[in-house]
Amino acid sequence: MKLRRTLLLCLAFSTAAALSAPARQAIAAEPGRVYQFSPVNQYGIELTASYWNPIINYVSEKTGLQLRLKIGRTSADTTAYVLAKEVDFVFTNHLFSPERDKLGWRTLARRNTPPIYGQIVVLADSPIRKLEQLADQSVAFPGPEALVAYKYTYAHLLNEKVPVQVNFSGNHDGAFAQLLSGKAQAVGANSQLAEGWSKREGKPLRVLWQSEALHDLALMVAKHVPEEDAKAIQRAFVGMAQDPKGIKVLHSASELVKLPASTVFISSNGSEYAAYRNFYQTAPVSLR
């Protein structure tokens, strides 16, 4: 197997034999079709896989379609898969720029989590209390594709004329590892992930700045996926909230990454993501 500095994690499930023919037809037109699913690397690879595998297992069982988890070593690597048209479904906010809008990805659902914010944070016991104190210091970011954690936060630093040393760490866990080790003095973060890391690790954080409120990432489908399969996948994700087994899977996954216990997937037509698209109208050219 070729390693392109990426890791392919696959989980395929086929339950056609366990479902009655009418049930299979009601959920998906062609059971057994294989699709690649690439969520952005919000956590380390192991934790990302541990969160998503039970969820796509459930969706595969419900639809008879086989979802395979495909993630790269970093969030930028995973997005590269998407841009290379190697995947069919994504969980991301990396596709709302004017150029990527043209690729035809369509929003199916999102999580009903509280609003998220781009934040610049330091450890609670850090002597740094103002953004100006970060001048010429190292600031860790998940990666260059991280819209909320990098582009929103770094745009603010540029607008405030606070020069920093940009340190890309691959994902949020990597960025916070840099902070703990002292190699970085601050982190540009997604507030949801900063809060989850703080709870998992027992390390309180201080917020120096945060952006406007934004919606959580989007579950999206590529334009080449047949409509009946896209709808089947959407129904399965959204239907987890009404199925005791689905609720159990979501509760376990949410506890793992410290999301609210009430977190479920809800339908979306993408209109909630106007703020992301508006960002690119005024962002520094280097971040568009």
From TrEMBL:
Ordered alphabetically, the record's keywords are: Signal
Tell me where on the tree of life, at the top rank, the source sits. Bacteria
Q: Which Pfam families match?
A: Phosphonate-bd
Q: What Gene3D superfamilies would the database entry show? A: Periplasmic binding protein-like II (3.40.190.10)
Signal peptide annotation: 1-28
Q: Does the keyword Signal apply?
A: yes
Is Secreted set as a keyword in this record? Answer: no
PANTHER family, from UniProt?
Answer: PHOSPHONATES-BINDING PERIPLASMIC PROTEIN
Record-given protein name: Phosphate/phosphite/phosphonate ABC transporter substrate-binding protein
This chain's source organism reads Noviherbaspirillum pedocola
